[in-house]
Design brief:
Number of helices: 6
Largest sheet: none
Number of domains: 1
Radius of gyration: 16 Å
Oligomer: single chain
Strand content: under 5%
Helix content: 40-55%
Order of helices and strands: HHHHHH
Distance between the termini: 42 Å
Structural class: mainly alpha
Amino acid sequence: MSAFLVSRAHINQIVRLAHNETQDGASSYSDPCPFNAGRGDGATSRNAIGQMLLDQNISSLYARYGDTETINLYARYGDTETINRWEPGRSEIYVYAPTQRLLTIVEGLKALDCYDYQACESADYKQTDAAQFIDALRRHLIQRLPGYGEAETWDYKE
């Protein structure tokens, strides 16, 4: 299995998804970002979430490849500066920037799957804030799929 550093635009899209920004419309949550407890609000929240995702993705690359030189080969979008400046738990190098378009919910789910695959190489991945965030956001988006709320198969019986 190989892993790469997802682009800043990819992380920006995940941050937008967490703030209920999709082509399919906002969710019914009253809190615009139900997954950011303790991360502040507004730009602070967006930067904190993005930094958490970036940290885990880079941690995954270190777990998989072990050294900066090899990892730079997998900085797929030419973002070697990010890897070279990164220090576990001490870097604040992510700054949210809105993307040009919104993803659909289905596109968002696929973006989450991609991120999850690239960030899962550390031994403790399932226990990380990033993994739990991605899982919660995935569940949130699935419930927003058209027709999900109207489906009568919660307890399916024939």
